[in-house]
User: Which sequence fits this backbone?
């Protein structure tokens, strides 16, 4: 407790974003979902405020509860009349009081374009300021009127205004939570272009049609609402989609960081929440970088790398549909991404590491040696194509650890052992899961430990251990960046025999001692909320044909 022995009143709460306490934020959002404003107030500083509003004034009427379908005539059931305290002002005086906390801490929140804190009075030059009835008591009313008198030099009084709230005025969140039974809340949704997608828990399924129509009508630029089903019935582990409302059009276009991406949402994976991570990694590249993306998806790392001027980009994905849309996105953005050389492959990531990354690094090393040595090409002549650093992005956190053994002996027998003139950096996204509550430092240390174990290197120097996001209460996503030690690159070892405790069969099952266990959808689930747009979802993980697996769970990062 911040101040032991004091009494706290909840008036307004600002929940600070902290990945360590993300689970607490989530629970607070649910527990306080009906609280008008929440803020911790210390009575030692002489601040006196009313208790928090329960928010019942601005909730749809109870008669809509358990509504399973939403027809046009059903929208009338959302109509509600409320009586609000109000002060009528001459319009020319409003500017004097706007920004006064004593007044506007107690006004209503904007509900819609029609219902907001300051409303016009038709056919007059006056305006109303509307207040939350549950936040006002006699003392606060007196303070507000005193502030008005001081600021506007006018004496006014409170009066009552009757306001009719229609279906169109309620938010999607208010409507959906109103139709659900007591104790059940809608966790949220995500939007990719014109597609809104949800992952409805079993108890929400009876209300899916009403939820779908509400989202369709109340989400900007939405034409399609889909629910991700539990079953995965195809080679590339797509989730089957159930159209809840709108048209079955899955070809979406999204914009991220000034770039356009087209994709078939039913065939590939996209997560707009990861835009900051895409940008963070891309900022590490420059015109002397070679970038190898092992699981490129539709290009959220590839295209920013090209725009940063990386002189060589080699992209790969196992999913042919991802490769198709990656090629399309390269064409769409060619003006913005410059003239970077971009190669695109479609193969398993392990094969890509051994058969594409290794040979291309060798070619560039020989070329660099030639430039520096015999003078046939001067550095000035090829300055835009000189590679000084190699970046390898492994952005599949469910599986990236399994790719690390394939870097053992990557250059053995290909070039003479010695100090390399270029650096080779891996950016490995992975999940860290705890069995009990742990401090923040434990997760970052565990991330480093997992990388060291799977790479087979006891002592490592890590450039960066970056927290990406909280997946669940005891599960976090990290990106570990490190330069591959030369003793790993040149070691004489068959990577396929390394660290082989668990395999993954062609059906995506973990195998140990000849037995297999199907990875559950819960192991790939994630949760999204209204406040930070988190969603509960499963993820599309390609089938593993060659790799070893220790303890891997979770989702794609594309």
Assistant:
């Amino acid at each position: 407790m911040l101040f032991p022995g004091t009494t706290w009143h909840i008036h307004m709460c600002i929940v600070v974003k902290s990945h360590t306490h993300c689970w607490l934020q989530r629970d607070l959002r649910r527990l306080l979902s009906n609280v008008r404003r929440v803020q911790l107030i210390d009575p030692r500083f002489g601040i006196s405020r009313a208790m928090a509003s329960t928010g019942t004034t601005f909730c749809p009427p109870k008669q809509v509860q358990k509504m399973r379908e939403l027809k046009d005539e059903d929208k009338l059931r959302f109509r509600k009349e409320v009586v609000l305290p109000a002060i009528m002002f001459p319009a020319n005086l409003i500017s004097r009081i706007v920004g006064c906390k004593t007044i506007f801490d107690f006004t209503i929140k904007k509900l819609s374009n029609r219902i907001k804190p300051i409303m016009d009075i038709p056919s007059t030059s006056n305006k109303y300021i509307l207040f939350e009835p549950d936040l006002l008591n006699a003392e606060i009313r007196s303070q507000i009127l005193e502030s008005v008198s001081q600021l506007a030099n006018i004496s006014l009084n409170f009066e009552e205004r009757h306001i009719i709230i229609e279906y169109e005025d309620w938010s999607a969140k208010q409507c959906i939570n109103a139709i659900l039974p007591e104790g059940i809340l809608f966790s949220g949704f995500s939007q990719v272009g014109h597609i809104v997608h949800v992952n409805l828990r079993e108890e929400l399924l009876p209300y899916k049609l009403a939820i779908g129509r509400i989202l369709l009508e109340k989400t900007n630029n939405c034409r399609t609402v889909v629910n991700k089903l539990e079953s995965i019935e195809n080679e590339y582990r797509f989730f089957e989609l159930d159209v809840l409302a709108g048209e079955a059009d899955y070809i979406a276009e999204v914009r991220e960081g000034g770039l356009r991406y087209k994709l078939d949402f039913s065939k590939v994976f996209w997560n707009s929440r990861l835009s900051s991570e895409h940008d963070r990694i891309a900022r590490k590249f420059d015109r002397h970088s070679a970038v190898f993306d092992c699981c490129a998806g539709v290009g959220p790392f590839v295209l920013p790398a090209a725009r940063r001027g990386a002189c060589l980009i080699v992209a790969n994905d196992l999913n042919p549909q991802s490769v198709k849309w990656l090629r399309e996105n390269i064409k769409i953005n060619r003006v913005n991404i410059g003239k970077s050389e971009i190669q695109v492959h479609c193969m398993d990531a392990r094969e890509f590491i051994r058969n594409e990354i290794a040979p291309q690094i060798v070619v560039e090393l020989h070329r660099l040696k030639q430039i520096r040595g015999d003078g046939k090409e001067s550095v000035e002549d090829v300055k835009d194509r000189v590679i000084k650093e190699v970046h390898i992005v492994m952005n599949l956190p469910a599986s990236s650890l399994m790719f690390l053994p394939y870097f053992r002996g990557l250059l053995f027998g290909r070039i003479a052992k010695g100090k390399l003139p270029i650096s080779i950096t891996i950016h490995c996204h992975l999940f860290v899961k705890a069995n009990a509550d742990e401090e923040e430092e434990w997760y970052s240390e565990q991330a480093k430990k997992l990388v060291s174990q799977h790479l087979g290197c006891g002592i490592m120097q890590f450039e960066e251990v970056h927290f990406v996001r909280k997946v669940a209460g005891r599960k976090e996503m990290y990106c570990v960046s490190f330069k591959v030690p030369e003793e790993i690159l040149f070691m004489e070892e068959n990577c396929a025999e390394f660290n082989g405790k668990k395999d993954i069969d062609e059906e995506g099952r973990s195998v140990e001692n000849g037995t297999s266990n199907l990875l559950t959808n819960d192991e790939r689930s994630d949760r999204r909320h209204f406040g930070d747009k988190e969603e509960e979802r499963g993820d599309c993980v390609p089938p593993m044909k060659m790799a070893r697996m220790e303890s891997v769970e979770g989702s794609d990062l594309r």
User: Anything to note?
Assistant: Residues 193 and 252 are 5 Å apart (CA to CA). Residues 1-58 form one domain.
